[in-house]
Amino acid sequence: MSFTVAIDGPAAAGKGTISRALAAAFGFAHLDTGLLYRAVGAKGGDPVQAALSLTPQDLARDDLRSLAAGQAASRVAVIPEVRAALTAFQRRFATQEPGAVLDGRDIGTVICPDARVKLYVTASPAVRAHRRWLEVGGDAAQVLAEVIERDQRDMTRAEAPLRPAADAVVIDTSDLTIDQAIALATQVIRQRL
Ligand code: CDP
Fold first, then answer.
1. How many independent structural domains does the chain possess?
2. What one-character DSSP code corresponds to residue 58?
3. Buried b / exposed e across 30-68, counting CB within 10 Å, b at 16+?
4. Beta bridge partners of 118
5. pLDDT, tens only, 80-98
6. Is 9 in the pocket of ligand 1 (CB under 6 A)?
7. Which of 8, 33, 106 to mutate to test the pocket of ligand 1 (most atoms within 8 A of CB)?
8. Whose CA is nearest to atom 6 of ligand 1?
């Protein structure tokens, strides 16, 4: 049976870096599910049609990591039909051998409720905004405001809101180096393998 690792958490908490490191360490596939929502938001037009017709080229656009693409992603992510259109692909991805790491907002709660390991990776808003600012630059106060606005929308939406699954292990990376965070996450997986 394949081994699924579900990693959820707010913007810029370190999910992506931790997920990539875990996938490399255990030989698992990795899916950044945020990229799917970013690509739907960036595609424009009717978001449901965009979600139903996503192509690999849509996911390869070089503007998907921008603040604007993050905001557009969280706006289309509240639409139940958009989420439904992306569910089957994510679930199929999760069942591949020998295992898969998926990171996002609803992986442990909705997409893979039976995942063998669930992590909720978080950090204080100030720390997360600083990390995002190092990535995208610009006005630091605006980056913080956008991170907070996006988290608020993600946590309060009716469909698949961001929250830790009841059985998730919470890792707060505010005071951890990336290596320490990866070591903690690796330990959790080793215990369950
Ligand atoms: O990299 P960062 O954590 O800032 O964001 P992301 O993971 O790329 O996700 C962008 C946006 O997509 C989020 O703010 C959510 O609104 C949405 N999203 C979602 O609703 N469900 C997921 N599984 C992944 C992302």
1. 1
2. H
3. bbbbbbbbbbbbbbeeebbebbeebeeebeeeeebeebe
4. 6
5. 999 999 999 999 999 999 9
6. no
7. 33
8. 34
Residues 4-45 have pLDDT tens digits of: 999 999 999 999 999 999 999 999 999 999 999 999 999 999
State what percent of residues in the chain have pLDDT above 70.
100
Q: Find the domain containing 13 and state its range.
A: 3-192
Q: Rounded distance, CA 155 to CA 174, Å? A: 19
Atom index in ligand 1 nearest the CA of residue 153 equals 16
Question: Is residue 117 within 6 Å of ligand 1 at its C-beta?
Answer: no
**What's the pTM value of the predicted model, to 2 decimals?**
0.96
Asked whether the beta carbons of 47 and 79 are under 8 A apart, the reply is: yes
Q: List pLDDT tens digits, range 102-113.
A: 999 999 999 999
Instruction: Check if 128 has its Cβ closer than 6 Å to any atom of ligand 1.
Output: no
Q: Is the CB of 93 under 6 A from ligand 1?
A: no
